[in-house]
């Protein structure tokens, strides 16, 4: 197996593109999506109050003080954002230890600096170009000029939500309140191009199905978003799956801990080539 590079937007691609982990996926496919419809098959009547509540649920995210997680396709990303200190921590795990290639990234952003620790495992790890310079067990200091706009390595403190849930809720086409702080409906992924959690190839692969993708959401007692589950349909040869995004500890995140100098090296060109 030859690995030239990991695709752009590593987190988004791995978490939000069905079947993307061709190198890593070994388990069963996730559940297929079920359409949102009434028992008679007719589309439910729009609930404008529910839609506004869902739009309002992302306001607190803008303050940049929360913990989050994203999961799907055998991959997990979790971390925290702390806007008061202009810092963030993100941990990404792609694949399982038994897969041909399992990837771990520990990212720390403390403006104006960023670091990443890369962990490559599996039989295909040695096929990654420059693996001996990447798998060091140390944090690699990143050149801000090279990671600006990079969806895998960069972080924009003007857009603090890694998942882009505000853009996703704005793309809601139908939503019904299903309980106290619970919602279900459909969204148009083609209108959520700004969501950091979406890879453009996903929308292309879904075609017309991207216009009506089922989702569920929950909010806390203060009306803040706590969970968003997107139920992706099949795309090409890839099975459908559920993608889950969660938020917690609003206002209680902490400043990221910078790595000590003895645990830092400068990132080699191979790192940028791999994650460009």
Outline the structure in words.
With 276 residues, this protein is an alpha+beta fold. It has seven helices and twelve strands. The protein has helices at 10-16, 48-56, 131-134, 144-147, 165-170, 200-206, 269-275, and strands spanning 65-72, 75-82, 87-94, 102-110, 113-121, 139-141, 172-179, 182-187, 213-219, 225-232, 241-248, 264-266. A twelve-stranded mixed sheet has the order 7-8-9-10-11-1-2-3-4-5-6-12. The longest helix has 9 residues, at 48-56. The protein starts with 9 loop residues before the first helix and ends with a helix. The model is unreliable at 1-43 (pLDDT under 50).
Question: Key features?
Answer:
single chain, about 280 residues, alpha+beta, about 30% strand, globular, 12-stranded mixed β-sheet, disordered N terminus
Listing every helix as H and every strand as E from the N terminus to the C terminus, the arrangement reads HHEEEEEHEHHEEHEEEEH
Helical amount among residues, as a percent range? 10-25%
State Rg.
19 Å
In percent, how much strand structure appears in the residues? 25-35%
Low-confidence stretches: 1-43
Overall morphology: globular
Mean pLDDT: 82
C-alpha end-to-end distance: 20 Å
The major sheet is characterized as:
12 strands, mixed
Structural class estimated from helices and strands:
alpha+beta
Based on DSSP secondary structure assignment, what is the total number of beta strands? Answer: 12
How many helical stretches?
7
Largest sheet, order of strands side by side? 7-8-9-10-11-1-2-3-4-5-6-12
